[in-house]
Amino acid sequence: MQIEQLGSCLVALISRHRKEAVETDAQNKMKESEDITHGFTVPCYWQSTGTVLYCDSASMEQRMSIRPVVIVTGANRGIGFGICERLLRQLCYGSPPDSAPNARSSSGRPWEFWQDCDGLTLLMACRNSASGHTAREQLLKQFDLHISRLKELAHIERAKKFRENLNVEVAVVDLTVASSVLKFAAWTREKFTYVSHLIFNAGIAQFNGVRALPAMKQVFIHPSTAVKAPRYLKERVGDKTGDGVGLVWQSNVLGHYILLQSLKELLEECPNAQGTSARVIWMSSLSTFLDHSDYNLHDIQLTASQHPYQDSKYQIELLAAALNQAKLKSNANGAFHLVVEPGIVATGLDQFNNRGLWRVLRTLTFVTARLVNSHSFPTSAHDAAISATHAALVDLHPLEARLESSDKSQLKFHSRAPLKRKPYVSYDQSLKLDEVNTARSAQILVVCDRLYESFLPVQIQRE
Ligand SMILES: NC(=O)c1ccc[n+]([C@@H]2O[C@H](COP(=O)([O-])OP(=O)(O)OC[C@H]3O[C@@H](n4cnc5c(N)ncnc54)[C@H](OP(=O)(O)O)[C@@H]3O)[C@@H](O)[C@H]2O)c1
């Protein structure tokens, strides 16, 4: 008995000694990091060269390597594929052009940016496995071709190293089926310890006609908004998913919200693993600048709305603004929420205008818009993806004042594509969390949370 007691005393003594040694080591490293940041106590550990100095829970190897884990929904085609393509091409350079402007921090506060990656895990979240795998093959083939065309030796070496550490996986997720989203999230939690970017790109629109009178009115009174944000397009109304939820709403809003909630812990792990906060990028559209006075507070799932697509994008901006304000207020490990829009580009989204005479008319309209110097009509999904890749990579520090603006407006990044010049990104503070919008966003959050919680037990039973 006495020997057993002596043994346990010894074990306790040794583990206390070890704990103290670890704590002293950590304190020394913390002090070291404070010295380098000129006395500012910063929660994560960057110095002005952008090298990770020290992270509590990261291994030595992790400390030295920056490896984003990026999930892109709807990655198999259109703008989602463009985002994947663009991300690879950007990250194989030491200083990705899409990350500009890249101003240096002077306040000693941590920067929030993603550059100098020596590898990447890209999860292409697709509804259909076969088309996901075809897209993956195409993506890697194009990327290899891109590397083979690089001319500068330094770029080639860097790109080859990045390629070796590149892991592209296809995962099946149908956003209109809550159990599919929860299953994908469970798989992700099993495989990865953190997620650095969630790019919520997937979306549907069910345009099926044109209302002649409103069309003429908008074309004559506001010709530019008639093309950028048409209010005269008819949409199918009232469709529901197998989960009993509004179809467009679940595809564009709820499905992503469920994914966000299910991967919350992995996003919160990002600062520990990579030294910087994760980012959630919400794909919106140009049309949200329109007046939303007809928004119906009693139709959150947009089953009665005449414009479920445009209203879903407005809701996305409301959600992102509220979640971002909460992150900035708490200053906790949570992710930044950023809103982007791709301009207007011909993809599979608008099935109605993709046919016959409408297709010809659409092409003519886009060409005319470009000729009259509108920058909102990129010629490819690759160009349209620039706002998303920029939001994923840019140093947020120079934008901090705008992110934290006292009037609580949401920063929105726009893809811009001038004729015969390279695409670029502009940003503005489009949506303001005033009294009305705050109440609306709170209401959407309540409904999303309630539905998310109602789906959880179903998933647990299936497992
Ligand atoms: N094109 C534009 O001019 C434009 C303008 C403003 C905003 N946007 C936004 O940009 C985003 C991408 O649109 P896009 O133009 O690239 O359209 P797209 O070519 O139709 O691509 C949509 C993508 O979303 C996926 N998707 C749709 N429903 C899904 C579901 N239930 N579960 C999982 N994935 C689903 C599609 O998968 P499948 O292949 O399986 O159908 C496809 O990969 C959308 O959010 C859209 O609202 C586009």
Give a description of the structure.
This is 3-keto sterol reductase. InterPro entries: Ergosterol_Biosynth_ERG27, NAD(P)-bd_dom_sf. The protein is of the alpha/beta class and 463 residues long. The chain has a single domain (43-462), classed as NAD(P)-binding Rossmann-like Domain (Rossmann fold, 3-Layer(aba) Sandwich). It has helices at residues 2-36, 60-64, 78-91, 129-148, 153-164, 178-191, 212-221, 223-228, 247-262, 264-268, 270-274, 308-330, 356-371, 381-384, 386-393, 400-403, 435-462; strands at residues 69-73, 120-126, 166-172, 197-200, 207-210, 233-235, 279-283, 336-341, 409-416, 424-432. It is globular and about 60 Å long. The two termini are 46 Å apart. Mean pLDDT is 81; it is low at 1-63 and 102-110. The structure holds NADP nicotinamide-adenine-dinucleotide phosphate. Residues 73-74, 76-80, 127-128, 131, 173-176, 201-204, 251, 283, 285, 341-342, 344-345, 347-349 line the site of NADP nicotinamide-adenine-dinucleotide phosphate. NADP nicotinamide-adenine-dinucleotide phosphate (NAP) is lined by residues 73-74, 76-80, 127-128, 131, 173-176, 201-204, 251, 283, 285, 341-342, 344-345, 347-349.
